[in-house]
Design goal:
Helix content: 10-25%
Distance between the termini: 114 Å
Number of domains: 3
Radius of gyration: 37 Å
Length: 720
């Protein structure tokens, strides 16, 4: 016995209405057009048709209203790309609507061209679930790697032991989280606003290190994370504040569908969070839903799937109290109460359940389909009510590591999803599901009267509200640092010593975007993963930056002039960890070098520009170092020149040029008494008497030009 069972007598008529007591006449068209063209689905819609509804009803098939697949299209027979001639036509009809949203329609049908018997269909009943599922575009997941904290990265084997974004950030606000949602950990350092300065960053690094070394247990209730409808906007705010706080995370935005009557009713009757929680609980328990075959058409063509389908009323009355320990509700005490009303039942629950039933009946009645609608292939009313983000690891692609649920609230148009419970170096798949309220219909041929030249069909329809699961998006993400930039290199020789040179290696501070260059098929696979990590399409250039510690430098060397970068593929000379390396060479022999950097996550830089190095022997050995150009690109480089003059200007700022009055010139009677003038009034960063190196680096070739500049000035004393 449920609350709904108690309320049914209150909303169900106790007696059968007389013919004259019909609530309203149904709105029927004046005539059924012979050639009906149903509007095609828009680019952001997915047409979904329950497989069992396709071609099962012979009468609808004779009329041309059955859905069918033809090539890459899913449409009614009348609108199919294949020629179709109906075998029946409707010449007249009448109808009425019942109190509970059902309709009764009387159809007069005639065969076209041949005598067709339809009397055997009397008493047959069918379902009708056809709807458009709006799908707003979602960008691919992007993995963001901020800073390398070795202790934090290597501490965890379970994602659920790591710090989550939303619970961690919302815990900074008093009253934002119920005690059941709060992790038993030290609070995050006080947050100053949107960004963190250098000192506060150090506090954060210390915090994550100490958290990792405390050996925290896995928070098993975070397997199912539920965002109440009232906290989605707060979660978005937490996302903004957390971007600079967490060392790494995966993120993408979900554009939420427009909330309609169903969502508004669920919020007003306090069923929104219960609906969300019940979907989560039934998925975890594996009950009350049915796997139902569907066909769908979107921009990618026609496909089949087997989604979860619920009876909407059964879902609303589901008892999810046993699921409470397996989920976390990221809201306050009131939100937890609305998500699990069974934990603290009140009389208001009965009132709210009554209001929910009344609202759903009204929505069903207002959007009820009649027999004419079904014969035309009209879509059922539908509305997105809940979203689910299922996260899978590469170790298990069937059972999610975590599920994230949120109601389609009218308070937000976008949900900023951010997942910090991810292990670097591990590939994750994220599947986004929407759950649609569908005003489906069941109908029955109550009677069929066979007249001499026509048949009279009486068709009764009954609302059958469903919640249907839709897979709307899938993406993968690899959490790792950006690939490093090739090292900066300097060659040195030793005075009076032949046969030995020194190679100085220094990590670059550049942040560049380049097409990746690989030397093996394994590296090609890694590049594909890195593109996924950066949320890029195949073939897009990668961002390179030394945001991780260098693990090793690769030194490639060959005495043969290389034709291209692939000439170095099997010429790996040494792998070193030092920044200064001694290399044995033969005097007066030319060598060609290339260098790469490998970071702690195994990411490899692009090859450096090649160097042509010769140690000239003799009494006073010296080294010649030239930038080498591959023959395949040297001609193109020679023919491409740009005037650099307009891109660079170096001059002191006004504060460096102004006369410093503190030098005592104001007390002098005239300029003849001034022996010295100090230039510059800047309190910090005085340039006079200092040397500067300005290095210009080509984004395409990596070649460098150094400008060594010394700022100085002369005071010419004017004698009388």
């Amino acid at each position: 016995m449920t609350t709904f069972d108690d309320l049914i007598p209150l909303i169900t008529p106790t007696s059968t209405p007389e013919p004259g007591d019909v609530a309203r006449s149904v709105d029927l068209p004046q005539a059924l057009p012979r050639e009906v063209k149903i509007k095609k689905t828009s680019e952001n819609n997915t047409l979904r048709v329950e497989r069992a509804d396709m071609g099962q009803d012979p009468i609808i098939s004779f009329l041309g209203g059955s859905y069918t697949t033809a090539g890459d299209t899913l449409d009614t027979q009348r609108n199919s790309v294949q020629d179709f001639q109906p075998s029946l036509m409707v010449t007249d009809f009448s109808g009425s609507a019942g109190l509970m949203g059902g309709t009764t329609t009387h159809l007069i049908v005639q065969p076209i061209g041949q005598n067709i018997s339809i009397s055997q269909a009397e008493g047959s009943s069918y379902g009708y679930t056809v709807y458009n599922n709006p799908v707003a575009p979602i960008e691919s997941a992007k993995a963001t790697y901020g800073i390398f904290i070795e202790d934090y990265e290597e501490a965890f084997t379970s994602e659920l032991a790591m710090l989550d974004v939303y619970g961690t950030m919302l815990s900074l606000t008093d009253g934002a989280l119920d005690s059941a949602a709060t992790r038993d950990v030290a609070p995050l350092p006080a947050h100053p606003g949107v960004s963190w300065d250098a000192g506060e960053k150090e506090d954060l690094i210390t915090y994550f290190k100490e958290f990792a070394t405390s050996n925290p247990p896995a928070a098993l209730n975070y397997e199912n994370v539920i965002f109440p409808h009232s906290s989605v906007a707060d979660a978005n705010s937490a996302f903004i504040n957390a971007r600079d706080a967490f060392p790494f995370f995966v993120g993408f935005d979900i554009n939420l569908d427009t909330s309609g009557d169903v969502c508004n009713s669920l919020i007003q009757t306090k069923y929104a969070d219960k609906f969300t929680t019940n979907i989560a609980a039934t998925i975890d328990n594996g009950d009350i839903f049915e796997r139902t075959p569907f066909m769908q058409q979107n921009l990618e063509g026609v496909s089949a799937d087997n989604p979860r389908v619920y009876d909407a009323n059964l879902l609303a009355t589901y008892d999810a109290s046993a699921f409470m320990s397996k989920a976390v509700v990221l809201g306050n005490t009131a939100d937890l109460r609305e998500a699990f009303p069974e934990s603290q039942p009140t009389f208001n629950d009965t009132i709210e359940a009554l209001q929910y039933l009344m609202d759903m009946r009204n929505i069903s009645a207002q959007n009820a389909l009649n027999a004419i609608d079904i014969s035309l292939g009209k879509k059922c009313y539908s509305e997105t009510v809940v979203y689910r983000i299922a996260k899978f690891s590469e170790d298990d692609e069937t059972s999610p590591v975590q599920n994230f649920y949120l109601f389609n609230t009218p308070d937000a148009s976008v949900f900023n999803f951010m997942d910090s419970q991810v292990i670097p170096g591990k590939m994750y798949t994220y599947k986004v599901f929407s759950y649609s309220f569908v005003a489906a219909t069941t109908y029955e041929y109550a009677s069929i009267k066979d007249e001499e030249t026509f048949d009279v069909l009486t068709v009764k329809t009954t609302p059958s509200t469903k919640i249907v699961e839709n897979l709307i998006f899938q993406t993968t993400a690899l959490v790792t640092s950006l690939p490093p930039v090739a090292p900066e290199v300097e060659f040195r020789s030793f005075i009076g010593e032949e046969g030995r040179i020194q190679i100085l290696l220094q990590d670059s501070t550049q942040r560049i975007t380049q097409q990746p260059i690989t030397l093996s098929q394994e590296e090609e696979r890694r590049i594909r993963e890195l593109r996924e990590s950066q949320g890029l399409l195949p073939g897009a250039p990668l961002t390179f930056f030394n945001d991780d510690n260098t693990k090793v430098y690769e030194i490639y060397r060959t005495p043969i002039a290389p034709d291209n970068v692939n000439s170095f593929e099997d010429k790996l000379w040494r792998r070193v960890t030092e920044h200064a390396v001694l290399d044995a060479v033969q005097s007066d022999k030319t060598y060609y070098y290339m260098f790469r950097t490998i970071d702690n996550h195994g990411n490899i830089s692009n090859p450096s520009s090649p160097y042509e190095v010769t140690l000239i022997g003799g009494v006073s050995p010296y080294i010649l170092v030239n930038d080498y150009e591959y023959p395949s690109v040297s001609a193109a480089l020679r023919s491409s020149t740009k005037n650099f003059k307009r891109f660079l200007r170096v001059r002191p700022a006004l504060q460096q040029l102004m006369v410093n009055l503190d030098s005592g010139i104001q007390s002098k009677p005239s300029s003849l008494d001034v022996n010295k003038v100090d230039a510059g009034v800047a309190t910090q960063g005085q340039v006079w008497g200092k040397k500067y190196k300005i290095r210009i680096i080509s984004k395409e070739t990596g070649k460098k030009i150094d400008f060594n500049i010394k700022y100085d000035y002369n005071f010419d004393y004017r004698e009388q």
